[in-house]
Design a protein that fits this description.
The complex is a heterodimer of chains A (333) and B (355). Chain A has 333 residues and is of the alpha+beta class. In chain A, 59% of the residues lie in helices and 11% in strands. The longest helix of chain B is centred in the N-terminal third of the chain and has 18 residues, at 83-100. Classes of the chains: A alpha+beta (333), B alpha+beta (355).
Chain lengths: 333, 355
């Protein structure tokens, strides 16, 4: 195939590549939302919004003809359309990786940086997970026909790996000018040091996250359970894992040791008026729409004098809460 | 008793004069129910919960006269009255309240009648609240552009201060009679009264007229038994408190002086806040709740009078030290313990005799 024929063929498939990129992005974003629980959680999880990009024609041709010769470039070049997912932590990469591997396409892992680390133990360079997916059969997205076997490359990396990749991309991978060999060696050495530092920092961030999660595990599971009880009682979804909920739970962390799921459940079951009261109050205030009210209700019942002493937010809502629970605020506020 | 989900159905307000004023003029008795918006009803509900629910200082009273035409009979009839009957009966009771307001310090004010429903300890119940409210003076704030102005309000009711209200909260615990025209049974109701004057003795008729002269109720008869129970719960709590032995003696002394104080009622929360270290207050309140003491009760020390008269400490060597409790606190100090199991004491005064 001549360069002109190849150019025309690539140009002809651009709309299909564009549609493929958007379909894959949407499919992964939908699965992420299901996994993380909300659109807000997804946008917090992804450090940069993913945007599918179809390769520029010249860039495709250059790759085909000069950099890496191919027999059937239209099939063999896998990054004709690419999507990049940038996450905060190493462990987050796995979440998207699993979604990609379970997606409605044929997926293949092209680069596995964890594997590469083990294979090249004294080599520090670009790190990222790359998947290539191909459509299983002909399909339509947004009215555009996507042929079977069309490839799309998905890159998944941490924000630190991304910073390194952007830096290396401009200075080494595609140098704008040819440097003297000695200078290039120095730059390569510095890049390797940068990569090693980033690998170390990513690991350190992972450790911090794990410690925080272990510390927060009990609080988090009590808040989750409060949320379930709230839904069971009122039939309405509560705001859960909010900053308000975490501020309150954190303030009374010392009292949470005594709280179990069973105790929370029994507490709620003994209060048949809770449904009506919560439904009434939730229309008035965001405080009563937060699942933390279940956990807090239990804590107030057990610790009526100490809760107001350390109450971390506006005390008017706590007074209303005591009132809802039928506990006099006399001498406490 | 835990009062929750208070719903207000009807409210009416009348004037309550002093008895001596009735001869001079007739009190203003309203012919119309008060219309309150949701916020107003919520505030009334809040005041009720704060004065009569768990942790409040209200006490239970029992009906002394529940016969035909008695305040109990009229008040409970009001639960089933149509609007006219409700208004008429409330007027009768408001007039009775004015007639009962004879003692010196009692002020004229308002008689407020509130009918509604609530959950009383998780059971849906009807209630009638009768409030004698003294008027308060305050200012209403207005924002005018970039300035704030105040308007004097001379007749404000149901403010935050509990010193300005007396309340009888009559709850229908059992709805046993399906015929609303039959007289109500006393046993089907619990009556809670709050009047801050009841907490300290020495207020005479001013402290008793509301529940006694007006409502014809009497203090619950199990007061001595409840006081004894409170004493026992408190003593056993202090025995297990994680404090030094000498501090335990001090706390025990505090309990005795608290019970000997010139007060007519006791409530676990006030006791905890006044006497115990704050780390132990909730545990104590919890302990009281387990023993079914979750609100104030009338103090009657006749069953524990001996225990309050004298405080003692027994040592492991079988030595026991006794002193009148009012002396013990200031005249006995435990200053330390030695490794060879001796306790050092300081006792005020010199050796006088060996009886």
């Amino acid at each position: 195939m001549t360069e002109i024929e190849l150019k025309n063929a690539f140009e002809a498939r651009r709309p299909a590549l564009d549609a493929l990129g958007r379909w894959v992005t949407k499919t992964i974003m939908d699965s992420l939302e299901e996994h993380l629980g909300s659109k807000e959680a997804v946008s917090k999880f992804l450090q940069i919004p993913p945007t599918p990009r179809v390769k520029k024609t010249d860039s495709f041709l250059e790759k085909t003809l000069h950099r890496k010769p191919k027999k059937d470039p239209l099939s063999e070049i896998t990054d004709q359309v690419g999507i990049r997912f940038v996450v905060l932590l190493l462990e987050d990469i796995k979440i998207i990786g699993n979604i990609v591997q379970d997606g409605p396409w044929i997926a293949q892992k092209d680069r596995d940086f964890q594997q590469e680390r083990l294979e090249k133990v004294d080599y520090f360079a670009y790190q990222s997970d790359h998947y290539v997916i191909r459509t299983k059969y002909e399909m339509k997205f947004d009215g555009i026909v996507i042929p079977p076997g069309l490839p799309c490359e998905i890159q998944i990396r941490t924000i630190l790996q991304h910073a390194y990749a952007e830096m290396a991309h401009s200075s080494s991978y595609k140098p704008p000018v040819k440097l003297p060999e000695e200078d290039q060696k120095h730059i390569n050495r510095s890049l390797a040091r940068g990569s090693a530092l980033i690998e170390t920092t990513d690991d350190v961030f992972g450790e911090i996250q794990k410690k925080l999660r272990d510390y927060n595990k009990d609080v988090s599971s009590l808040l989750d359970y409060s949320s379930e009880i709230y839904k069971d009682i009122t039939g309405e979804s509560a705001n859960s894992k909010t900053q308000l909920g975490e501020i309150i739970a954190d303030e009374y962390r010392g009292l949470l040791k005594e709280v179990t799921k069973e105790k929370l459940k029994a507490w709620a079951e003994k209060r048949p008026w809770l449904k009506q009261s919560l439904l009434k109050e939730r229309a008035e205030s965001v405080f009563f729409r937060d699942s933390v009210v279940i956990l807090l209700g239990f804590l107030v019942t057990e610790n009526e004098t100490s809760i107001p002493r350390r109450w971390p937010v506006d005390s008017a809502c706590l007074e209303n809460f005591y009132n809802m629970l039928g506990i006099s605020t006399n001498e406490l506020f | 008793m835990n009062i929750t989900d208070v719903k207000i159905d009807r409210i009416i307000v009348h004037e309550a004069l002093r008895a001596s004023e009735i001869d001079l003029r007739t009190p203003i008795l309203s012919n119309y129910l008060v219309v309150l918006d949701d916020q107003g009803k919520a505030l009334v509900g809040k005041r009720l919960v704060n004065t009569v629910s768990s942790g409040s200082q209200c006490v239970d009273v029992s009906v002394d006269d529940g016969g035909k035409g008695s305040p109990f009979d009229i008040a409970t009839e009001m639960l089933d009255n149509d609007e006219k009957g409700f208004i008429d009966n409330s007027k009768k009771l408001a007039y009775e309240l004015s007639r009962a307001q004879t003692a010196g310090p009692i002020k004229a004010g308002s008689a407020i009648f509130i009918q509604g429903s609530c959950f009383a300890d998780a059971k849906q119940s009807r209630f009638l609240a009768i409030i004698k409210a003294d008027s308060d003076q305050a200012f209403q704030k207005h924002y005018m552009g970039d300035s704030v102005t105040l308007t004097y309000v001379s007749d404000m009711l149901l403010g935050e201060s509990q010193r300005l209200i007396k309340i009888a909260f009559i709850i229908e615990i059992t709805h046993s009679d399906i015929n609303p025209n039959n007289p109500k049974q006393i046993d089907d109701f619990t009556i809670k009264v709050f009047d801050h004057l009841m907490h300290s003795s020495g207020n005479g008729n001013a402290a008793t007229y509301f529940y006694s002269t007006f409502l014809r109720c009497k203090l619950a008869q199990n007061a001595s038994w409840q006081t004894k129970l409170f004493y026992e719960v408190t003593k056993s709590f202090i025995e297990t408190m994680p404090v030094l032995p000498e501090d335990r003696i001090t706390y025990y002394g505090d309990v005795i002086s608290y019970l000997r104080q010139n007060r007519s009622t006791i409530d676990p929360r006030t006791f905890a806040l006044d006497v115990l270290p704050y780390t132990q207050q909730d545990a104590f309140i919890h302990k009281c709740m387990e023993a079914n003491i979750n609100q104030a009760f009338t103090k009657d020390t006749r069953l524990i009078i001996g225990k309050l008269r004298r405080q003692s400490v027994r040592f492991s060597s079988n030595v026991t030290l006794y002193a009148p409790s009012e002396v013990f606190r200031d005249a006995v100090k435990i200053t330390g313990t030695s490794e060879d199991d001796w306790t050092e004491l300081k006792i005020r005064g010199s050796i006088e005799k060996m009886p």
